[in-house]
Structure formats: C-alpha cells, structure tokens
C-alpha cells in the first residue's frame, strides 16, 4: 500500500497530468418577479427548450433555472462560461430576476408552485412525471431549494501514477473515485463551515412545518450558529430515504443497494399509486422512482444516453466523474460561486482523491461523518463546537486547521501546474474563517440582515436586483449572442423532432425505461 506522502511525491513528479483535470458547474436559481415572488410564468421561450438546451434548463420547478457549463481545464474558463450564460439569461428576463440565494423566495401555496414542463415527448413526460412524484413524496416547497453542483474529474493517468488498485483502467478509475467519495464523506463538514450561506429562511417556506428555528424578524427564521439550513434536516422528513444507506466501499455494493431502492415498493407510496384521475402522478411506488431521487452530498456519475439508466451505465462502464451537491449559492456574486471557492474545491477534491481512504466499517456506513455534517450545518459556528474523528472528540477549529494544512500541498501542486499562486491563496484565505467564525459567509449574512434591519427576503431581493443589473450592464458580443441564439433555436427544433419521432405510448416507454435497469452482477475477486 502506497502512503499518502508517497502518492503526493509521485503526483508532484508527474504534475503535468493535472493540466487535464476537469471541472464543470450546474447552478440553480429561481426565477422571481420584481417583488421577489416565485414566477409562475412558463419557462421563457427566449431560453429555448428546457428539455434539450444543454446550457439552460430547469430542475424541479418550471421557475427553477439550472445553468450548466461544459467541462473546463481551468477555473478561468469555467467561470467565464458560467458568467456568459448568466448574462444571456439576465438579458432575456425582462420583468424577472434570478433569485441569488439557496433558500427560496416568497412561495405561493403548494398547489400553485409550477412543476417543470418538458413537452409531450416520452423523454419530456418522464422528467415531468418524475417531478410529480417528488411533489407527492416530499412536497413542492422542498424542491424549490437551490444550490451549486460542482462536477470534477481526473485523467485516468492519475490513478495509474498513484498506484490505485484495479484489474483495468476502468476499474482503477471507479475505485479511485469511490476512495475520493469516502474521504469527501469524512471531511465534507468543512465545506459546510467554510461556504455554507443559508443560516436563515423566509417564513413562507416554513408554512405548516414543525420546526425549532428562532425568529429574526416578522418574515425571517434562523438558527444562531447555523451554516447551511439548506443542507440540514429542517423541513425534511422522509422515512423511506432515512433508512437508505448506500455503500461507497465498492461499486458492486453501491449498485446493489441502489438497485434494491429503485425496485422495492414503499408502503406509503403504494397507497398513493401511480395514477390519479387517469393521469400519471409518479413513475412507480418504490423507495426511489429513479436513481437520482436519492439525496446525497456527492454522487458517482456517468453520462447516459436516452432511456439509459444511470445505474446501468455505471455498472457497464464504471464511474466517469463525481458531482458535489452540497455547495450553497454564494449570494455575494452574480453567478453564485467565486473563483476562490472553485479553486478551493479543486484542491480539496484532489486531496480527497490522493489521500489514503480506508473502507468504511459498519456495512459501509459512517455514522460519525453523517453526524459531523449535520452538526456543522445547524451549529457549526457554536463556540467550542466539537466533532468526532476516529471515534474521539476533536474541536472543529483544531480539525479545520489540520485539514487546511493537509490540503495546502495539493494547492501548491496545482499552482506549480498552472504557473500561479491563486490555489495556495484560496486555501490560505480559509484560515481566517476557521479561527474566527464571524468571517464565514453564514455569519456575515446574518450580520448584514441585522445591520440593515432587513428580512432575508428583502435583503436577498435587493442583492438579486443588483446582480441582475450587473449582468445586464455588459452587452454580449455579437458572435456570443449569435451562438446562444443558435443553441436556443436548435434546442426547440430538437424537442420538436423528439415529439414527432416517438412511436410508442408513454406507458410502454415507462415500462421500457424500468426494464432498462439491470440487476448488478457482482464481480468475482
């Protein structure tokens, strides 16, 4: 077994491979009207088809925009594309804004929150009915929470350089990413502390929910030491998923448990059924309708083709990249994430990939890591906060400083690779937050609300307006505008083609989609 220090040395000797490290972003944001109320208008035609536009789509709600970048080998290229897409969208939204806060704006009643619509093709209807199922299972308000998803991949040569075990490059890659995920699970509490920016929520979101939140003002609830209510258990109660424990020790076990979850009926969902008044209301009555319904902080991913199941793609071709799902929107920047955060994420994820990553005991479930993450989400800034590391108590400050010291050499390697100092600066800039919790984004947001005497809604609306004007202020070049308009037109044409080319009824398509899920076959060791 090669030690972490030896791996780091080997990586340093071959750091040119890091030039091919890739990252991408999926950034969500609610469309709201000028008063900060959820938009109930259809997805704007000027943004193209939400089904087939690869850069601009929707998530759960018709109003929940999702802006998607391609993969980039530099942070500069990544954020430049994200900013350009934001600029294009802002210039198309005449009377609406993108809400630049993870916790939702003023929501209408559950009945009036619009579920995303993708047209009448079988592919589009599958996405829509899946979201109907989410509404039945979890309620619509919970699905309006927004975040930033960070996609990350390393070139296959990295796994060979550091001696990742595996019978093939595909197996090496999958084992390498699962090791990354285990370390991420151990240390992801740090991301909540450093970048959590949702310590408060508007009263309209908590309508009808039992909670123990404090009152900041007539319209705002909060927790005094919270970092990310978005990633806490506030308002989220789902017995089916709480009993679901996936395992990241090996891909076979992970896929077996995922397969069980998407094929095992859950009594409460059986009572609901799949149809109401002759219409589909969920894809099936199982614990999960499809694989993506499992809410996790990080996912192993593989690109899929039409009607291909994610689990089947993983089983047949292995893990291709990972998707980090726990980053809050940064409300201080128009695009929801800063270059400093992106560079820290690169260094942190590289650290998670290269450091030793022992298997989890207890059938692959790490209770301490789960508890640490939950505690930091709700009480991470509490003076003297204590976590659990290897079954022993440790202060958040001590462990945080230790992790930053261990991540620093990876930032240095990335700087040497890219001929700069910005990665080291990104890691170093987090030290002040560890030593002084008042410097964290969550604390700064609460301080701003108190200083301005503003509710979360009013403050977020004003910020969103300023960001909207900033994005609209600089006109896109004629060539860039033409590029985006072409993407819009082509997406509409592609959706129309899908709708015309379908030759089977939707029920048959759903049956074929379910049949495409194959029971994983455990590999013999």
TrEMBL record:
This enzyme's EC code(s): 6.3.2.2
SUPFAM superfamilies: Glutamine synthetase/guanido kinase
Gene Ontology biological process terms, A to Z: glutathione biosynthetic process
Enzyme class: ligase
Residue ranges annotated for the Glutamate--cysteine ligase domain, each copy included: 13-374
Keyword annotations: ATP-binding, Glutathione biosynthesis, Ligase, Nucleotide-binding
InterPro entries assigned to the protein according to its UniProt record, in alphabetical order: Gln_synth/guanido_kin_cat_dom (IPR014746), Glu_cys_ligase (IPR007370), Glut_cys_ligase (IPR006334)
Single GO cellular component term: cytosol
Biological or metabolic pathway of the protein: Sulfur metabolism; glutathione biosynthesis; glutathione from L-cysteine and L-glutamate: step 1/2
Catalysed transformations (reactions): L-cysteine + L-glutamate + ATP = gamma-L-glutamyl-L-cysteine + ADP + phosphate + H(+)
Single Gene Ontology MF annotation: ATP binding
Protein family (similarity comment): Belongs to the glutamate--cysteine ligase type 1 family. Type 1 subfamily.
Protein name: Glutamate--cysteine ligase
């Amino acid at each position: 077994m090669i030690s972490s220090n030896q791996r780091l040395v080997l990586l340093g000797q071959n750091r040119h491979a890091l030039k091919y490290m890739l990252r991408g972003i999926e950034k969500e944001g609610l469309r709201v009207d000028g008063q900060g109320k959820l938009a109930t208008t259809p997805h704007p035609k000027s943004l193209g088809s939400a089904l087939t536009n690869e850069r601009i789509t929707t998530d759960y709600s018709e109003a929940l925009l999702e802006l998607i970048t391609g993969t980039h080998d530099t942070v500069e290229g990544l954020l430049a594309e994200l900013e350009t897409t934001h600029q294009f969208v802002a210039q198309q939204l005449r009377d609406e804004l993108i809400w630049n806060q993870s916790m939702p704006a003023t929501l209408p009643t559950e009945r009036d929150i619009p579920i995303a619509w993708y047209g009448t093709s079988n592919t589009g209807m599958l996405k829509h009915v899946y979201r109907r199922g989410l509404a039945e299972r979890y309620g619509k308000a919970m699905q309006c929470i927004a975040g930033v998803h960070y996609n990350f991949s390393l070139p296959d040569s990295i796994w060979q350089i550091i001696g990742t075990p595996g019978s093939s490059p595909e197996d090496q890659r999958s084992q390498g990413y699962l090791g990354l995920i285990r370390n991420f699970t151990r240390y992801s509490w740090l991301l909540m502390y450093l970048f959590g920016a949702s310590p408060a929520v508007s009263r309209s979101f908590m309508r009808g929910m039992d909670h123990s939140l404090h009152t900041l003002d007539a319209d705002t609830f909060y927790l005094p030491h919270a970092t990310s209510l978005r990633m806490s258990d506030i308002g989220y109660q789902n017995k089916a998923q709480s009993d679901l424990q996936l395992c990241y020790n090996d891909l076979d076990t992970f896929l077996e448990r995922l397969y069980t979850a998407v094929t095992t009926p859950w009594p409460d969902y059986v009572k609901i059924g799949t149809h109401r008044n002759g219409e589909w209301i969920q894809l099936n009555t199982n614990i999960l309708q499809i694989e993506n319904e499992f809410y996790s902080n990080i996912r192993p991913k593989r690109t899929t083709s039409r009607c291909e199941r994610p689990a089947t793609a993983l089983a047949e071709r292995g893990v291709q990249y990972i998707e980090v799902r726990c980053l809050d929107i940064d409300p201080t920047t128009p695009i929801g994430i800063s270059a400093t955060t992106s560079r820290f994420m690169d260094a942190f994820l590289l650290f998670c990939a290269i450091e030793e990553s022992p298997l989890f005991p207890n059938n692959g479930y790490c209770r301490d890591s789960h508890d640490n993450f939950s505690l930091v989400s709700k009480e991470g800034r509490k003076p003297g906060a204590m976590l659990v590391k290897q079954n022993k108590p440790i202060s958040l400050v001590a462990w945080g400083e230790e992790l930053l010291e261990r991540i620093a050499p990876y930032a240095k390697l990335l700087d040497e690779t890219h001929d700069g100092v910005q990665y080291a600066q990104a890691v170093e800039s987090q030290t002040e937050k560890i030593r002084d919790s008042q410097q964290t984004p969550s604390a700064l947001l609460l301080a701003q609300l108190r200083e301005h005497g503003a509710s979360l809604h009013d403050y977020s609306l004003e910020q969103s307006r300023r960001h909207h004007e900033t994005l609209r202020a600089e006109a896109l070049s004629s060539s860039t505008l033409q590029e985006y308009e072409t993407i819009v037109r082509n997406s509409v044409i592609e959706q129309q083609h899908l709708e015309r080319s379908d030759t089977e009824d939707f029920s048959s398509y759903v049956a074929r989609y379910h049949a495409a899920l194959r029971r994983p076959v455990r590999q013999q060791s």
